[in-house]
Amino acid sequence: MLNQIINLLKASPADAWEVTETVRDGWEFYFIRHALDQNRVVHVEHYQVKVFCRSEDGKYLGSAAGEIPPTADEAEVERLLRQMILAAGLVRNPVYTLNAPEPREKKPAAAPIHPGDISAAFFSALQQVPETETEDLNSVEVFVSSLQKHFVNSEGIDVLSEYPSSMVEAVVNARKDGHEIELYRMYTSGTCDAEQLKRDLSEVLSFGHARLQAVPTPALQKADVLFSTDAAREIYGWYIDRMNAAYKHMKYSDWEIGRPVAENAEGDLLTLTAVPFLPNSSRNFSFDAEGAPIRETVQIEDNIPRNFLGSRQYSQYLGLKQSFQPSNLKVSGGSGSAESLRHGDYLEPVEFSDFQVNPLTGDIAGEIRLAFWHHGDEVTPVTGGSVSGNMKQFARTIRFSRETRQYDWLEIPSVTRLKDVTITGAE
């Protein structure tokens, strides 16, 4: 199918093209409690095509993308390609070029990926989660895949990458005095990090216990807020988005190379690095979606922007060299320990109904489902209310731990503390 698509593209009026073939071989398991309810093996093929057409004067380049079903015959493929080419001809973006072949670092052959072995590691880890009579795993679904991605473009790039991708979905139940609640978690990774999975699910079991004892969140007005769970990804996502080439070109980001992210910073100085590999990441591939090699690149160094990264189109508009779309990202740890950040009074939300950081304005907003109010020597589980504020203000005083925690393709400090966050109570 891949060769057929390429041959038809070469014979078409498209000025340039990209094709990505992705083959997934996966094993899926569905558990009720710890009993296997059903399982299946899947084999799926995807063919993503993107075509490019230049305007007659050569000043503009339009593009359109679509998916070719693996069962399509030649006539169907031709019809779909014609539709894409027609659509691409209606788009008028300033002209740019596709990635071209370049020397790539030779790496030793990776070990074969066996979904069965990875699945067995997940099963073993799940059996070791410390359940109790009142807090346990209600249901678990495990998905493990070996993916092979083959990228070819009209400039001569022809690269292949194979990597694992896994997902665990878990529903935790907690009960007390006739009341019962559920907490949901979804974990993505490459292979199985058994110790981290056990820590994560043990943490959720304790949250379920605390949620049934929680009282309404007091009207605190302003207080420090400490983030120690996956909600912190949204905070660092604000920095990541604003270092994207598309955001910079479209003026969504006003950051400049060499100018501090936060003027007169009083907190920890953030360093953000794009890396090609993180242990157990599901995005350990050697090239991006447009065939560009992924290199270790510092984007922010001690609060100072160094390199915008992004797609070929917007990177060329900004005049960037050796740019690419990052797969894995790493935020270096701060100056103090996680324990040192846990001082004084602060609110520690661990469960949100929803938590978001607006990438354009920097506004944060989250509805609290469970938090711990640390006041003096007392720690009280609370629920309800919300947190709000703006990252442009928090970036001056943000503090984060030297210890880090990995969430699939993103490694960030394990504890992050924001100063003077607005807290609306539920009392």
What is the tally of beta strands? 21
Question: What is the percentage of strand-forming residues?
Answer: 35-45%
Approximate helicity band: 10-25%
List unreliable stretches of 5+ residues.
none
Number of helices: 9
- Measured between the Cα atoms of the first and last residue, the distance is 62 Å
Count of distinct structural domains: 2
Radius of gyration of CA atoms, rounded to a whole number: 24 Å
Taking the sheet with the most strands, its summary is: 8 strands, mixed
Structural class: alpha+beta
Tell me the series of helices and strands, N- to C-terminal: HEEEHEHEEEHEEHHEEEHEHEEEEHEEEE
**Shape call:** globular
Mean pLDDT: 94
Report on this model:
The chain has two domains: 208 residues, 2-Layer Sandwich (PmbA/TldD fold), CATH 3.30.2290.10; 213 residues, no CATH class. Helix 3 runs parallel beside helix 4. It is built from nine helices and 21 strands. The protein has 427 residues and is an alpha+beta fold. Strands 8, 9, 14, 15, 16, 17, 18 and 21 form an eight-stranded mixed sheet that branches. The chain has a seven-stranded antiparallel sheet with strand order 4-3-2-1-5-6-7. A six-stranded mixed sheet has the order 12-11-10-13-20-19, covered by helices on one side. The mean pLDDT is 94.
